Structure formats: C-alpha cells, structure tokens
Amino acid sequence: MRLSVIGCGYLGAVHAAAMASIGHEVVGIDVDARKVEALSVGEAPFYEPGLGEILSEGIASGRLTFTTDFSAAKGAAVHFVAVGTPQQKDGYAADLTYVNAAVDALLPYLSPGDVVAGKSTVPVGTAAGLAPRIEAAGSTLVWNPEFLREGFAVQDTIDPDRLVVGVAADGVVAGDVLREVYAPAIAKGTPFIVTDLATAELVKVAANAFLATKISFINAMAEIAEVTGADVTQLADAIGHDVRIGRRFLGAGIGFGGGCLPKDIRAFSARAEELGRGESVAFLREVDEINLRRRDRAVQLVVEGLGGAVFEKKIAVLGAAFKPHSDDVRDSPALDVAVRLHGLGAKVVVTDPQAIDNARRLHPQLTYEAARDEAIRGADAIILVTEWDEYRRELAPEHASSLTDGRVIVDGRNGLDAAAWRAAGWRYAGMGWP
Length: 434
Ligand code: UGA
Hints:
The protein has 2 domains: 2-190, Rossmann fold (3-Layer(aba) Sandwich), CATH 3.40.50; 230-434, Rossmann fold (3-Layer(aba) Sandwich). It contains 18 helices and 14 strands. The protein has helices spanning 10-21, 33-40, 51-61, 97-106, 126-136, 153-158, 172-181, 183-187, 197-228, 232-240, 261-274, 283-305, 333-343, 356-362, 372-376, 389-392, 397-403, 418-423, and strands spanning 2-6, 25-29, 64-67, 78-81, 115-118, 140-143, 163-167, 192-196, 314-318, 347-351, 367-368, 381-384, 408-411, 427-430. The chain binds uridine-5'-diphosphate-glucuronic acid. Residues 121, 146-150, 208, 211, 215, 249-251, 253, 255-258, 260-261, 322-323 line the site of uridine-5'-diphosphate-glucuronic acid.
C-alpha cells in the first residue's frame, strides 16, 4: 500500500521505516529539512536500536523516501499523523499546534476515499474536532494510537502487543483499511481492537497513566520502606508474583521521565478538568508529586553519604538519559538529579553511553565525560541514575575502588548488587532500602 507519515520524530520516523520494512511504499514528511536530509541517507536522528538498519533497507529498496514537500502525500491510501503533542509552555494541557498544522498542510493533498490515521497522543475529543475538516475533503479520520517504547521502538511497531483503531460511526470501512496496513502483525495473532474515536484516544492516555501510577505506587512504598527498615525490592518481588499485580513497572528508584509519561498524565489531568471530571484523575497529581519527590530523595542520599554537604565534592553521575537504550533526555530524572547536585555546589561529572550530546545542549553548565572510568576517577561519590549495563552489570566495586578513594555509592535505580558493594568497603545507599 502507499502510505504517508506526517511528522518524522520518534514516532513518525520509526513508523515510516517499520511500515516500509513490512512491504509498504512510504513517504515520510517533516517540516524540518535537516531531519529529512538525515533520514533520506538512512541516518536515524536519535539513538534507537535497529532503526538505522530498517531505514537503510527501506531507502535501498526504493520503498521509503523522506521529504519536506507535503504534496508527496498525494496518492497515498493512508496518511498517518505522527507529530508531537508537547506540554504547553504555560500549563499542563497538551499543545496541539503541530497536530492542527499537520492536518492543515495535508488537506490540499487528500483525495476522496483516503484515510487519515491519527497516531499522536491527544486529549480525548481531539479527533472529533478534526474529523469535519477531513470529511469535507471526502476522506475519513481514524485514531490509531501508538504504544511503542523508546529503546524497543522498532520491535514494538512491527510486532505490537495490540492494535487499536478508533473509527467514527460510519468509519468501519476505514478501519478495514488499517487492518490491511497491519496485515502481517494481525496474521501473527496481534489483537486488532476497533473502538470509537474517543475510546481510542483514551486507551492511549489511560495506558500511560496506569504505567505512571504503577511506578509511583512502588515509589510510595519505597518512601514507607525507608522509614520502617523494609526493602522495597523484596516487596516488589513478592507482590509481583501475584499475576493480577505483575512485577513489571514496579522498579522503585528516581522515577519516570521521558517525552511521554510525565506530559501525558498532566495533559490527562488538564483535559479531565475541562470535562468537569478533574476529581476522577486527581490521583495523577499525587502520582506526579511522588515521582518528583524521589529525585529529592536521591540528592538527599548523596548529601547524607558525604556527611551533610556536597559543596566542591566531585560526584560522578552515571547516566543522563531518562532510561537505558535511549539518548532521550526529555524530562530525564537522571539529568535532573545531576542539575540539583550542581546547584548545591558539587563538581558534577555526568557520563552516559549515548545521551551526552543531548544533555549538553539542554544543560551546558554541567561537566560531561564520555568515558565512565574517567568520570569516576577521584570522585567523592558515585550516583547511578540510568541503569545502562555499563553501570549496572559491568562496573565491579573493586574496579571502582581502584579509580577513587571515595567510598560512597547511591543507587538511584536499585540496580546494583548492594552486598557486593558493601563487601568491597563502599557505603551503599539505594532507594527504598534499609
Ligand atoms: C512509554 C510507554 O511505556 C509506552 O508504552 C508508550 O508508547 C510511550 O511512553 C509513549 O507514550 O510514546 P517510554 O517513554 O519509552 O514509553 O518509556 P518507559 O519504558 O515507559 O519508561 C518511562 C520511565 O519510567 C523511564 O524514565 C523509566 O526509567 C521509568 N521506569 C520504568 C521506572 O522508574 N520504573 C519502572 O519499573 C519502569
């Protein structure tokens, strides 16, 4: 099938390349000429395992192209709208500027019978507002939210755990067109759920709200564990054996960040307020607050570890990305902890295998060091804030001891072997531990 993908950021670039890899002919369209140039030669504009390969294959096959010219959308059977919906600068609501601009730019090139499939994460009710403009062009709007995780984006797009398509009352045929787009995944048994437009929009924000709540739940338990001498990791293991609860997303630590969970729970709160149902999701404010408090706690553990003050102490911060396998530093708890320690007068040295360039652009005031061991050399304290294997599995306490006389380690992700660090003479502190 011929497809167009409007917006070639995280979501769009991966979607375009993944759709080409399953045999479609895809044009990716973005207003950012530099991004289009990079993608056109098979370069991923961000770190995402496997994306470079499918970009190059798609381009070599002739099935995948990128352009800034919206007229290239003409002739595609399905147009995916995959632009960003960031948090508004002066509030919690989602900024829909890019979604509206994408639809406006696409309208002149729609043909009767085309399907426009919204993929962006939007406040419930957005699709119903956009539909009349698209219907006036003889096309149909469906909503097809995306559930990919950064770091696993290619796999999640080609082999999703479910496909959700929201259609208007008369949009069943358009839903079937999406069934054709995703035929390979459906053939492998991926559930294909057809809903109305509002439900599809809500499925996306509800999923992210639930995941954020799960993380903040375990972090709330970590706060209780800290004052009772309990161990939050054992607690998570024990409750996680109950299949109704499940162990995943019960990793206590410095909490969630990134371009999705934080802004999505805020946009959800804002939308619920607009709908007169603010109280229904009032708990999301608490989820947000618990999450942000864990960053304070991590800083506090470093301060305590160093005897009450970090001023002029060298602190090695292991990690800048909001999670491993990503170079994304948007709303990164790791980087926020580094900034807070810097603000207290510490000599912070941040290291990360992928995210240093992005981190430096955002926080040029911090010192960055690509080599892990150089960051650690001579440090008074180490704090692990992104659980890359380089830090979590591959950093032996004895090796760290050979690099510095400092003996304070704070585990912001509860990923280290506490017993091994303690046995090697380190003062280890985790999140939600005795
Ligand atoms: C999230 C969702 O997981 C995806 O399903 C969704 O499609 C995506 O947002 C989106 O809306 O586009 P992502 O932002 O890539 O994906 O990251 P996650 O893997 O969800 O992790 C989010 C944050 O939670 C990270 O900072 C991670 O370190 C933290 N986290 C995760 C924890 O603190 N504890 C855990 O147990 C799990």
